[in-house]
Design goal:
Strand order of the largest sheet: 2-3-4-5
Radius of gyration: 24 Å
Strand content: 15-25%
Largest sheet: 4 strands, antiparallel
Structural class: alpha/beta
Order of helices and strands: EEEEEEEEHEHEHEHHH
Number of helices: 6
Length: 264
């Protein structure tokens, strides 16, 4: 661009302004800290990472990275009253394009069956899509060592495995010990089946029924509670879960460990 006198005037590309809405994920390029907006005023903005750590940054003249592009954060017309939360209790990310199957991480989380996968998706689905993690059912733990070897875990290809009934002396614990390593983490809960990790009150009962040994647990539960077939029970149990508050603590901790492990 030239002035009337013919002297070239250099213009700089303006840095766009982005409203600091609650849940917007940004990165401070100086420190590398990445987190969601949880509070903002005319002087500073507070970010919270997925592990709950918080940092405060000056709003100006700081420039942040939003979806990889430099931007200046500004106070939205209506300042956020607090971040919205996902079903897992994490800050719900807005303005973020979830990874697709082509861009997902090579890491995986394995669970024992379809009901386990559906329950994890129901509570942690938002977190998993943001992180690009795929959850796959193993349909049992038969020949787990061979399956893990075929997966070929590595530093950029970590494997997390969620196991039911992970208590001392069980076949599940022995199988877990065989495959555990620096790139494979096995966690679990003490319940016979993942349904039992749902709080009884969530499905409107006082306690889960005692099922005799040798009887399929889901079949025994459905018979005792008159729920019909296991497929009917699955719809009842999974449909009742709304958030992490509906689950027992051991399952919550086990899944959170796996997500942290595979996203390192």
């Amino acid at each position: 661009m030239f002035t009337a006198e013919g002297v070239r005037r250099v213009t700089r590309k303006a840095i766009p302004e982005v409203p600091a809405e609650a849940g917007l994920v940004v990165e401070d390029p100086g420190s590398g800290f990445c987190g969601a907006v949880v509070a903002v005023d005319v002087r500073e903005v507070t970010l919270e990472d997925r592990r709950g750590g918080r940092r405060v940054f000056p709003l100006r003249p700081a420039a942040f990275l939003v979806e990889g592009a430099v931007a200046t954060l500004v106070v939205p017309k209506r300042a956020p009253q607090g971040p919205s939360r996902s079903a897992s209790g994490s800050v719900k990310v807005v303005g973020h394009t979830a990874r697709t199957a082509r861009t997902a991480r090579a890491a995986r989380i394995w669970v024992e069956g379809l009901h386990d996968a559906e329950l994890v998706e129901r509570v942690w689905g938002h977190d998993l899509r943001v992180e690009g993690i795929v959850v796959e059912p193993m349909h049992g733990m038969d020949d787990l060592a061979a399956a893990v070897a075929a997966f070929e875990p590595g530093p950029q290809r970590r494997l997390g495995i969620l196991v039911d009934h992970l208590v001392a002396g069980t076949k599940e614990t022995r199988a877990a010990q065989q495959v555990a390593g620096p790139n494979v983490l096995v966690t679990g809960h003490p319940y016979v089946d993942v349904w039992e990790a749902v709080k009884p009150a969530t499905v409107g009962i006082r306690a889960w029924p005692q099922v005799p040994r040798g009887t399929d647990w889901k079949t025994g539960v459905c018979a005792a509670l008159r729920w019909g077939e296991p497929a009917d029970g699955a719809r009842r149990v999974l449909g009742a879960v709304r958030s992490f508050r509906d689950l027992e603590t051991p399952l919550i901790g086990a899944v959170e460990q796996l997500i942290d492990f595979v996203t390192v």
